[in-house]
From TrEMBL:
Domain of life: Bacteria
Transmembrane helix is among the record's keywords: yes
Keyword field contains Transmembrane helix: yes
Organism phylogeny: Bacteria, Pseudomonadati, Pseudomonadota, Gammaproteobacteria, Methylococcales
Keywords assigned by UniProt, alphabetized: Hydrolase, Membrane, Transmembrane, Transmembrane helix
Stated name of the protein: Metal-dependent hydrolase
InterPro entries documented for this protein: YdjM-like
TM annotation in the entry: 29-49, 61-80, 92-115, 135-159
């Protein structure tokens, strides 16, 4: 997924905020935590380009292991359920929820190591053929990119709806 992680994080955070409004976390803080979580796995690109010199696919790093995000999400849920103070666990919950969403969205058209660290084998729902030299052009011109456009449009719709609700 190239452009839809942040919009997908916005959609999920916006839709879930209504459910958790009663815990007193401001909408802007909840959204920031959610948006950060939606792109957090891709922060491993800093290591990929800066230190690993593109030697391994960045989806093979632990930051892209669904098991890691599932563990973090489970811990966030447990903290939220059992801690008396709910605000911080709630931010952890939306952060890790969107981190897990990132795994699902990446899985659609690229390799995700679902069983890592136990099995070192990647899985992808759709294989995007390498037709063009620039990797991003292969994704941009593949039919799976239509889903990204739909996510971006949905997020734009929600954002506009929020803006109109605030101005009225
Ligand atoms: Zn990713």
């Amino acid at each position: 997924m190239i452009v839809a992680h942040l919009p997908a994080g916005y959609i999920v955070s916006t839709l879930l905020f209504h459910r958790f409004k009663k815990y007193g976390v401001p909408r802007s803080v909840f959204l920031r935590a959610g948006l950060l979580g939606s792109i957090a796995p891709d922060l491993d690109m800093i290591y990929f380009y800066g230190f690993d010199h593109r030697a391994h696919p960045h989806h093979s790093y632990f930051s892209h292991f669904p098991s890691v995000w599932l563990l973090l999400l489970t811990l966030a849920i447990l903290c939220f359920q059992h801690c008396r103070q709910k605000k911080l666990p709630l931010l952890a919950l939306i952060f890790t929820c969107n981190g897990m969403l990132h795994m699902l969205l990446d899985y659609i058209a690229s390799n995700i190591y679902w069983l890592a660290p136990f099995v070192n084998r990647p899985f992808a729902l759709i294989t995007v053929p390498s037709v063009y030299q620039d990797w991003w052009l292969n994704f941009l011109l593949h039919r799976s990119f239509a889903l990204e456009i739909l996510i971006v449009l949905w997020a734009a719709y929600l954002w506009r709806k929020q803006c109109m609700a605030r101005s009225s």
